[in-house]
Amino acid sequence: MCKKTAIYPGFFDPITNGHLSIVKRGLEIFDRVVVSILNNPQKIPLFSIEERIAMIRGALKDNPNVEVDTFSGLLVDYVIQKKSNIILRGLRALSDFEYEFQMALMNRKLNRDVQSVFLMTDYKWFYISSTIIKEAASFGGDVSGLVPEFVNEKLKEKYLQAKNT
Ligand code: PNS
Questions:
Q1: In order of start, what are the domains of the chain with their CATH numbers?
Q2: How many angstroms separate the CA atoms of 61 and 87, rounded?
Q3: Nearest atom within ligand 1 for CA of residue 107
Q4: Which residue, by CA, sits nearest to atom 22 of ligand 1?
Q5: Which pLDDT score, from 0 to 100, does residue 28 have?
Q6: Using one digit for the tens of pLDDT, what is the confidence trace for 66-85?
Q7: Is the pLDDT of residue 1 over 70?
Q8: Separation CA 25–CA 70 (nearest Å)
Q9: In ligand 1, which atom is closest to the CA atom of 76?
Q10: What CA–CA distances, in Å, run from 88 to 10, 76, 116?
């Protein structure tokens, strides 16, 4: 049987339990999942690429069928370069739909051999995003249980550093 690899792209700034749930559920369908961080110099992230790679690797260290990688440029080109034809994405509430639909159609226009596959986010992670987690954490809000514990610690460190500079 031919092994199927899915590419799970995003910014992952930082990785959340919602992302991890999609990776783990993806592994129930695909043989391998490549978590790929978009390296976008136009966007200033909270965590560097190296920090994000380390956090994702740490969170998924017990999953040998996961690779963590970075990419720049067109996603569909990267998917082909990784010898895959599948983009894996999570879908939260209605608000995600329009953006994901637009992106999937654009990716399809760019390369019809690449398929976008969506998994509905588990109800537990329905309301979370990296952005809302960063916002809550930046004001000292408790985000434990929404990100892996070491990511929570990293968030606290970052915002403490920012406060002291
Ligand atoms: O974490 P995000 O914001 O949901 O990830 C968005 C991402 C990285 C999947 C998207 O911005 C992307 O694929 N960018 C690469 C550039 C590209 O291929 N654009 C054309 C298709 S919309």
A1: 5-123 (3.40.50.620)
A2: 22
A3: 21
A4: 103
A5: 98
A6: 999 999 999 999 999 999 99
A7: no
A8: 21
A9: 18
A10: 10, 12, 6
The pTM score is 0.96
107 in contact with ligand 1, CB cutoff 6 A: yes
Q: What is the pLDDT of residues 12-50, one digit of tens each?
A: 999 999 999 999 999 999 999 999 999 988 889 999 999
**Ligand 1, closest atom to CA 78?**
18
Q: Is 36 in the pocket of ligand 1 (CB under 6 A)?
A: no
* Residue to mutate (ligand 1; options 103, 128, 129; most atoms within 8 A of CB): 103
Q: Are 33 and 65 in contact (CB under 8 A)?
A: yes
Tell me whether strands 32-38 and 86-91 are parallel, antiparallel or unpaired.
unpaired
Give yes or no: 112 in active site: no
